[in-house]
Amino acid sequence: MATYFLSMVRLVHAGNLDTAEIPVNRGDKVLVVGAGNVAIDAARTALRIGAGQVSVVYRRGMDSMTALKSEFEQAVAEGVGFEWLSAPVAFTGAERVDGLLCEVMAADEAGNLKPTGETKRLPADKVIIAVGQRPAARIVSTTRGIDVDRSGYVITKERPYGMTTRRGVFAGGDVVHQPATVVLAMKEAKKVAAGIAAYVEAKKLMEECGLTDKD
Predict the structure, then answer these.
(1) Reported pTM
(2) N or C: which terminus of the chain has fewer CB atoms within 10 Å of its end residue's CB?
(3) Contact 30, 51 (CB under 8 A)
C-alpha cells in the first residue's frame, strides 16, 4: 500500500529505521495504481529514493484524475510516466511479481468507460497500490455518538470548530475532509486546536460559575 511505503520512507529519513525496510530498491521498475494525491506522492517519492522507472497506472483518462493538477505537472517534470485507460486485472510472475496485466479501456463522449477486450502487460519489480482510501472505522464503530457521512468520513461542527457529534470529541484531517494535501491537513489541525481550546475555556468558565453543560 502507498501509505505503508510512504511511512517507511519517512521513518528511514528520520533515522528510526534501516534503509532496507523501504520496499523499493534502487533501479526498480515501479508501478503505482491509482491517480490521487497519495498515488502521485508515492510515485515521486519512489523516483527520489532511486527507482529506475516509475509509472502511474489509472483505469480512467487524465481528465478524471483526482490528484491536484500541480502535483501531476510536478510528477511529469520529475520523470513519472502515466498509463491512462489501463485497468489492472492481475499480477504476473511465478515466485515474485514481474509485471501487471491490464485491460485497455475506452471512454465515450460522455466519459463512460468500457473494456476493449485488449490487454497489455506492464513490466514491474514492485507494484504500489494507492486506491480506495477511506478512513478506518475502528474508532467510530466502537464509540457511540460519532456520526459519519455516507462515505464514512466524520461529521464535525463549525462551533466549536472540529467537534464531532459526540460532545468533547474532536476530529480533523483526512478522516474529515478526505485525502487531500498535507498543507490542508496542517491548516485544519490549527483550526481544530483553536476549537478545542475554546471548548476547554468555555467548560472552565461554566464550572467557575457553578454551571454544567446541561444547565
Answers:
(1) 0.63
(2) C
(3) yes
